[in-house]
Amino acid sequence: MNRLRAHWKRWLIAGVAVAALLVVGGPYVYINYVKDEAPSALSIDNGQEPAEQEGTQPTREGVEGAWKVGAGSQAGYRVDEVLFGQNTTAVGRTDKVTGGLTIKGAEATEGAFTVDLTSVKSDSGERDGQFRGRIMNTAKFPEATFKLTRPIDFGSVPESGKKVSAKASGTFTIHGVTKDVSFEVTAQRSANSFRVQGSLPVTFADYGVERPNFGGITVEEKGAIEFLLTFHPA
């Protein structure tokens, strides 16, 4: 009987050890050898030229006037996760972005853009389902919107190809909650369009978003809303 108990005890210990190895080692193998690396941050330095809108577009010698968000624009989220003790980064994006900007001199005097949250996708269908469901409840809150509340002063009108940076201040609305925000944006002008990139830090609790932890995944309390907007003449 004692020999039988010792036999089962060894099997029990071995089973626990194997289970622990699978819990820790499985995610390590997945993250480091199977899962693709998270996409780099959205940036005007990615080497891609602004996409031209289909059809006949108005041309403009200077930058003053109204501009609209068009082809080549993207926005989404970036947040760090811990998967069974292994660190990874989740990124979700969409090209369903609308909005516009009005420029006078070297200032963006008015502007806003809206992101369709129902179309945001990552590399995980399960994560996307959680994002659209209990995390963001996109059935009730399908959009996120940023709106300028004061002009962005770029100091001077940049030459084509030159980058300029400035502070953007406005309101950001997501999950039915609106907050005042400020963050840096970088713009680059091209022949008949220009691009603007930015990253807005977000603390989930500030917007009434439940910290998204599920299925052995722990998500950090803070993340970022990234965007790269391409503006064409309106």
The count of helical stretches stands at: 2
- What can be said about the biggest beta sheet? 8 strands, antiparallel, barrel
Shape: elongated
One letter per element, helices H and strands E, the order comes to HEEEEEHEEEEEE
The figure for the number of domains is 2
Instruction: Give the CATH topology of the largest domain.
Output: Lipocalin
- Number of separate strands: 11
Mean pLDDT value: 83
What is the CA-CA span between the terminal residues? 86 Å
Strand order, largest beta sheet: 1-4-5-6-8-9-10-11
Percent of residues in helices: 10-25%
What is the C-level CATH assignment of the largest domain? Mainly Beta
The secondary structure category is alpha+beta
- Flag low-confidence runs: 16-35
CATH-scheme architecture of the largest domain: Beta Barrel
Radius of gyration: 23 Å
The CATH H-level homologous superfamily of the largest domain: Lipid/polyisoprenoid-binding, YceI-like
Percent range for β-strand residues: 35-45%
How would you summarize the topology of this molecule?
Blueprint (H helix, E strand, L loop, with lengths): L1 H33 L30 E5 L4 E10 L2 E9 L2 E8 L2 E10 L8 H11 L7 E6 L3 E2 L9 E12 L2 E13 L4 E10 L13 E17 L1
Antiparallel strand pairs: 1-4, 1-11, 2-3, 2-11, 4-5, 5-6, 5-7, 6-8, 8-9, 9-10, 10-11
Outline of the structure:
With 234 residues, this protein is an alpha+beta fold. The protein contains 2 helices and 11 strands. An 8-stranded antiparallel barrel has the order 1-4-5-6-8-9-10-11.
What does this protein look like?
This protein is α+β, with helices and mostly antiparallel strands and 234 residues long. The protein folds into two domains: 1-34; 63-233, Beta Barrel (Lipocalin), CATH 2.40.128. The protein is 19% helix and 44% strand. The protein contains two helices and eleven strands, in the order αβββββαββββββ. The chain has helices at 2-34, 125-135, and strands at residues 65-69, 74-83, 86-94, 97-104, 107-116, 143-148, 152-153, 163-174, 177-189, 194-203, 217-233. An eight-stranded antiparallel β-barrel has the order 1-4-5-6-8-9-10-11. The protein is elongated and about 55 Å long. The chain starts with a helix and ends with a strand. Residues 16-35 have low confidence and may be disordered. Pfam families: YceI (PF04264). The chain crosses the membrane at residues 12-31. It comes from Streptomyces turgidiscabies (strain Car8). Residues 66-232 form the Lipid/polyisoprenoid-binding YceI-like domain. InterPro entries: Lipid/polyisoprenoid-bd_YceI (IPR007372), TTHA0802/YceI-like_sf (IPR036761).
